[in-house]
Amino acid sequence: MKAGPASVEFRNVSMRYGAVTAVDNVNFTIEAGKLVTLLGPSGCGKTTTLRMVAGFIAPIIAPANCRAASSSASRWRARWSATPT
Description:
alpha+beta; 3-stranded antiparallel β-sheet; globular; Rossmann fold
């Protein structure tokens, strides 16, 4: 079975490294099949956000508010226990 494109939704997601807040209360939706880019200065949380989307790191706030859908995102869903969209 061929996997379709994934959709991703973050609601009120944050990530901290010790006392440093790398991502603070991020909200966004990426529709299936859409291309997006993150633009910002060094140290603003772009890489951390992409690592959370990919499932390499877990957010510290609101993991239940992260969603991914499609079989290509099954590893991500399993890691986050997110609900398919």
